[in-house]
Write a structure and sequence with these properties.
alpha+beta, seven-stranded antiparallel beta sheet, globular, Uridine Diphospho-n-acetylenolpyruvylglucosamine Reductase, domain 3, binds flavin-adenine dinucleotide, 459 residues, Uridine Diphospho-n-acetylenolpyruvylglucosamine Reductase, domain 2, five-stranded antiparallel beta sheet, 16 strands, Alpha-Beta Plaits, 16 helices
Length: 459
């Protein structure tokens, strides 16, 4: 509970209508998409201008109040679970696209702009904003930058990091820091933008984001390759990459996920397939045709039973829409869904797919696997019920084993979902004691009172 005086100070800055302290309201801001315990903040506030955002951060700092910024709350690592007696800052009142510059190919946005809204606005101007997390219809650009979100197009077009040209953010004192620029090149000062991307709200609060836009591809071709064996599908991924072809998208779905998605979206997916690869190539027409033909031939050589090519934009959209529903489709099946994103070098995908099957069988768990196979970024999704204590213990062991196998294959704990609370205790497995100490020194220097999203990244 905040004191009445402090509550009144927040109300003075933000207006009474933008300060929430009722239990019922606070529950909304007590969780995100990770399977973790809820924590209610003391208050939630909704700034509607840069000025009030900065003053809010300054007020929190002056009073030692922990701050957790919340975009859409779709992160999968506990990044927006607030601290008891802390302040949740909601960014949906900061949702303006401030500029789309079609001559110099960039956009400037406030952090609460929804990812798909910017992509659509850019498309209207004949431009392309490629990062497309599965949550793009609701996730915010502030959240994407703070998590360095990836998406289906990561393989060819990269992730959010590759599009952030500059930032305006508030430091812990509520003072404005400017990094990067609207220019293609910028070598002025430290690369603070690089430090802030993926910082999960622990080093500063984004106020404005400059994002690169690019010309859209002239032509696209999407196809679905159907396999009778998981291993041949995963070997196909490795072969396509080894053949020096970089599809825009190269996604994998196992049979369990195919059936769940088909049941949910009726997209016409072959429910008997052991595994599917959903592939899209884009670029100039001749290049697209040549690459599509090469991919078809690799798929057939590796044993694909059939390859369906989308005949028009509507069929293509249907394929990608179906893929984007994978998580929601699986979530319907059991009370608890644990989505992991351990990532391995692409050539190790067949081994990782095999390891996931083996881990699921040994612990008698249901694991649906889908994901950005072309990036080596699989999403093994464990369907369970956290109330079943015996099964939950097996789930926790399986998660440990998934991380161990990914790291043993030269991989990483997280391809795109961040560390948050969920993975903080594993950090040392991938890095080193000195890496963690170094990172903590950076955090302590920039946030000496540890009020910016405390408890995230470091256990
Ligand atoms: C169905 C579904 C599909 C998904 N698919 C993908 C996917 O394909 N790829 C992927 O990468 N992720 C995916 N995710 C995870 C999630 O959507 C991303 O992490 C996304 O970037 C989170 O955006 P958000 O607006 O919900 O951020 P939130 O969850 O609200 O916040 C995420 C982090 O950003 C910080 N933050 C937010 N705004 C600011 C700000 N203004 N300043 C400083 N810090 C800030 C928060 O404190 C928190 O640490 C998916 C999630 C779901 C539920």
């Amino acid at each position: 509970m905040l004191s009445k005086t402090l509550l009144a100070e927040f109300q003075k800055i933000l207006g009474q209508e933008n300060v929430f302290s009722d239990q019922a309201d606070l529950v909304t801001y007590s969780y995100d998409a990770a399977v973790l315990d809820q924590v209610l903040p003391a208050i939630a506030v909704r700034p509607t201008s840069s000025e009030t955002l900065g003053r809010t951060v300054a007020l929190c700092h002056a009073n030692g109040l922990p701050v957790t910024v919340r975009g859409a709350g779709t992160n999968l690592s506990g990044g927006t679970i607030p601290v008891e007696n802390g302040v949740a800052i909601i960014t949906n009142g900061l949702n303006a696209i401030l500029e789309i510059n079609a001559r110099d190919l960039y956009a400037v946005v406030q952090p609460g702009v929804v990812t798909a809204t910017l992509a659509a606005a850019a498309a209207q101007r004949g431009l392309f904003y490629p990062p497309d997390p599965g949550s793009q219809a609701v996730s915010t650009l502030g959240g994407n930058v703070a998590e360095n979100a990836g998406g289906l197009r990561g393989l060819k077009y990269g992730v959010t990091r590759d599009y952030v040209m500059g930032l305006k953010f508030f430091d812990v004192n509520g003072e404005t820091v400017i990094s990067g620029s609207r220019t293609v090149k910028c070598a002025t000062g430290y690369n603070l933008t690089g430090l802030m991307v993926g910082s999960e709200g622990t080093l500063g609060v984004f106020d404005e984001i400059i994002l690169k836009l690019i010309p859209p591809p002239a032509h696209q071709k999407a196809m679905v390759a159907v396999f009778d064996e998981m291993q041949s599908a995963s070997e196909t991924v490795a072969e396509i990459i080894a053949a020096r072809i970089v599809p825009a998208t190269l996604e994998f779905m196992d049979n369990f996920t195919i059936r769940a998605v088909e049941d949910y979206s009726r997209a016409g997916l072959p429910v008997d397939a052991r595994a599917l690869l959903l592939i899209e190539v884009d670029g100039h027409r001749a290049q697209v045709e040549e690459e599509a033909a090469k991919i078809e031939s690799i798929c057939r050589r590796k044993g694909a039973g059939s390859i369906q090519v989308a005949r028009n934009a509507a069929e293509r959209d249907k394929v990608w829409e179906a893929r984007r529903t994978a998580l929601s489709a699986l979530a319907k099946l059991k009370p608890t869904l644990v989505l992991e994103d351990a990532t391995v070098p692409r050539s190790k995908i067949p081994e990782m797919v095999g390891a996931l099957e083996e881990i699921a069988a040994r612990h008698t768990l249901t694991i649906g696997t889908f994901g950005h196979a072309g990036d080596g970024n699989l999403h093994p999704t464990i369907l369970t019920d956290k109330r079943d204590q015996h099964e939950w213990e097996r789930v926790e062991t399986a998660i440990d084993e998934i991380f161990d196998r990914a790291l043993a294959l030269g991989g990483t704990l997280s391809g795109e979902h961040g560390t948050g609370i969920a993975k903080s205790r594993y950090l040392k497995k991938e890095t080193s004691r000195a890496t963690i100490a170094y990172s903590k020194r950076v955090k302590a220097a920039l946030d000496p009172k540890n009020i910016l999203n405390p408890g995230k990244i470091f256990a």
